[in-house]
Amino acid sequence: MRFLFKTDYEDDIRLMPHSGYLVTYGVLLALLAVAPFVLSSYIMSQLVFVCIYATVGVGLMILTGFTGQASLGHAAFLAIGAYTAAFLQQYNVPFPVYFLAAGLLTGVVGALVGFPALRLQGIYLVIATISFAFIVEEILARWESVTHGNEGMRVKTMQVFGMAISRDSPTFYFLCLGFLILTIVGTLNLLRSPTGRAFVAIRDSETAARSMGINVSLYKVKSFAISAGITGFAGCLFAHKLSFISPEMFTLLLSIEFIIVILIGGSFSLHGAVLGAIFLVMIDPLLTYLKDDLPGMIAGVASTFGAGKESASQIQGKAAAIASANGLKGAIYGLIIVLFVLFEPLGLYGRWLKIKLFFQLFPLYKRATFKRQKIYVKSERNR
After folding, report:
1. Contact at 8 Å (CB) between 326 and 254?
2. H or E stretch including 3?
């Protein structure tokens, strides 16, 4: 077990508390650097989506995990960033310019959304963000002169300093990975700043934050703007990866997927955003497998144990109808959320911390180490 002896005030805000972090992250970066040269194109494509989803997860975690403001409208912010990039591309605007424009415009929209949300909390704030997402989706479908409506928009190949970067090239992968690393490092520095500490204070107790002189309204708007801006940058990369965007791609289900990223990964640490993105991106092929092969499996089991007067083809047809239902994916996501909330509220990263602590303290580990504590002070209940 490692013991850290702090001898300076800066020890509390170091990005790397000890040399073990340097070794671990150094090895991880080395593996990610050689990945394009040893892995298949399909796995590399999935890694790009992991980077994009993890970037959105970090942005959402700033708002939800660190400031305590719920949001189910981040698919709309992703859409604004994606459509900004696609629109400016039509006028031959260079990539660095429309990439910055996508993030800045989305950040401004996020700040505007944050103002009416100042008086809302809990389920009412969730309803407000869902309404915003529906409004954006409707605007994208009807503002045909800008968005081409339901026909969608084609996104051209990225051009950086005269060099074409394909969506399947290693360069695009390194671009997404580099932006994710920049976002994580920037967020870590943000959390060490007075702004980040104000976010956490608001999350823990708005009453206590006001008593310490924190302008709660100002920092809530800042949180919305920063979170939306990061999501807008990710939206630009998302559009280039898909090469085609339409309003049907930015629905409520996509916002729920972003919530799943931080809920499954762990909403109290940036590691959770990455772990949640890996889980979500890797589970999608499993759902595709279930939709394709589940009918045959059900028919085989039914024919083995007997299924009354129904033939195997009838059973397989019913199973196919169930598996191909539009709500199957959402139902599975809902089941995953319920299971994690009930049995692992700290997410995957919380489970990793428990396992690591178990081996560090063995045989003195206590099962009640991570048990939720009851709150008795009334002022602490206003969260």
Report:
1. no
2. none
Report yes or no: 230 and 58 within 8 Å, Cβ to Cβ. Answer: yes
CATH label, 32-282, candidates 1.10.287, 3.90.550, 1.10.3470, 1.10.150: 1.10.3470
pTM reported for the whole predicted model: 0.84
List of residues 6+ apart from 144 with CB closer than 8 A? 151
Where do the domains of the chain lie? 32-282
Lowest mean pLDDT across 134-148, 155-169, 224-238, 241-255 = 155-169
DSSP letter for each residue of 54-84? HHHHHHHHHHTTTT----S-HHHHHHHHHHH
Listing DSSP states for 155-215 in one string gives PPPEEETTEEE-TTSHHHHHHHHHHHHHHHHHHHHHHHSHHHHHHHHHHH-HHHHHHTT--
By CB neighbour count within 10 A (0-12 exposed, 13-18 middle, 19+ buried), where does 299 fall? buried
Give kind and range of the element (H or E) at residue 289: helix 270-305
Model pLDDT for residues 255-298, shown as the tens digit of each residue: 888 888 888 888 778 888 899 899 888 887 776 666 666 555 55
Cα separation, 35 vs 365, in Å, equals: 37
